Every structure is written in C-alpha cells, then in structure tokens.
C-alpha cells in the first residue's frame, strides 16, 4: 500500500482579510504625494489609441449641406385682353324717319361744317363731333362736306348710290360715307342719308345717331 504521506494535501482556499490599522497608515503614507493624471493628457492618450481615419474625420467638421431651393412657381399665363365687341353694321333709318328727313321736316339738332379741312383733320373732327353729340343724347345731326365738281352733286338728294357717279366729286363728300362704315363710327351712327336742299342737298348728310347708353 502506498504511504498515506505521499498523498497531496488539499489546497486551502484563500480568505480575504481586512487591513490592519498599521497597514492603512502605511498605504496613506505611500499615496500621499501621488497626483491624478490631467484630463488633457488622458484625452490625448485616448486619441492616440484611435485609428488615423477616425482622427481625420473627427478633426474635420462635416461640410454644410446646401439648402434645397423651393421649386420655382410658374405664374399662370395672363388672360388675353378682351377685345371690344364689334359694333353692329349700319341699320339705316326707319322708313318714316327717312321720309321726314327727305322732306326737310325734321329738326337738325347740331351741325358740323368740314369745309377747309384735310382728310385727316376731317376724319378726327367728325369722330369727335359724333361722340360728343351722342353723349348729349342728340339723334339727328347735319354734316356739311361740300358738293365738289360733279354736276350731279347739286341735284342728287337721295339714293344709296348717289356718291358712286363717275364724275369727279368732292374729296370729303366721297370719304364721309366710307368713314361712317368704319367700326369707330358705327359705335355712334345707325344710319345716314343726303340732306334736303334747304340743308345743303348733295353737299351735306343727315346722320342718325344711336341712343345714348
């Protein structure tokens, strides 16, 4: 049999013990002159342990992101300007009114004499005259143009084709009927016809105005 003394003795578990008073005094004497590490040194030491990539990204602040501009708002297309309605065509005069004018039985409420005017002057003067008298509520006006050199001018009183005779006519006598058919004049005029001899005959026109609005 093996000697029992050859058997290994079981290990004793180490037990923690508290320091004695003398040991505590000794420890305080050792650490009395010790100083804590500065915060800056600890920060540098921590940075030294970081990889170079992390250090470079930490040292360089991130570039500011560009602000996103709002999408441009395209204004809606402006509406097309409204065109003034086209004045109605000349309607002519009522039969009774035309007959009374032909007989010289109607009173002329205003008169415009275009003698001595150029065509440009006469055009503007006639349009302004008709606009003013219509604003006053007048209906029947007389416009004197002159008879010109045609032998028919002294005798032609009525008829839609009186100004189409082949002989030479007065310039304004030919121009006024054309002007009265223009849109600017039709806004004021409803019809016209040659005047009675007592008002100038073939050298003048009765002009019938539209009612004031």
TrEMBL record:
Q: Which InterPro entries match?
A: Smr_dom (IPR002625), Smr_dom_sf (IPR036063)
Which PROSITE patterns does the protein's record reference?
SMR
Q: Which organism is it from?
A: Parvibaculum lavamentivorans (strain DS-1 / DSM 13023 / NCIMB 13966)
Protein name (Swiss-Prot/TrEMBL): Smr protein/MutS2
The record's SMART domains line, in alphabetical order, gives: SMR
Positions of region (Disordered): 1-24, 50-96
Q: Where is the Smr domain?
A: 112-210
Q: Where is the composition biased (Pro residues)?
A: 61-90
Q: Which Pfam families match?
A: Smr
In terms of superkingdom, the source organism counts as: Bacteria
């Amino acid at each position: 049999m093996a000697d029992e003394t050859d058997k290994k003795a079981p290990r004793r578990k180490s037990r923690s013990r508290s320091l004695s008073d003398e040991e505590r005094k000794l420890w305080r004497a050792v650490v009395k002159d010790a100083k804590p590490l500065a915060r800056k040194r600890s920060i540098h030491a921590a940075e030294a342990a970081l990889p170079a990539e992390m250090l470079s990204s930490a040292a360089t602040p991130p570039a500011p992101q560009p602000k996103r501009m709002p999408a441009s708002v395209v204004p809606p297309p402006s509406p097309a300007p409204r065109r003034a309605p086209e004045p109605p065509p000349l309607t002519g005069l009522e039969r009774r009114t035309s007959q009374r004018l032909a007989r010289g039985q109607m009173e002329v409420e205003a008169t415009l004499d275009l003698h001595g005017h150029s065509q440009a002057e006469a055009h503007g003067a006639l349009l302004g005259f008709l606009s003013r008298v219509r604003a006053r509520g007048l209906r029947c006006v007389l416009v004197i143009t002159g008879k010109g050199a045609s032998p028919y001018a002294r005798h032609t009183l009525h008829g839609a084709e009186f100004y189409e005779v082949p002989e030479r006519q007065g310039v304004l006598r030919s121009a006024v009927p054309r002007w009265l058919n223009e849109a600017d004049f039709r806004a004021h005029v409803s019809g016209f016809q040659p005047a009675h001899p007592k008002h100038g005959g073939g050298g003048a026109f009765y002009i019938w105005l539209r009612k004031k609005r």
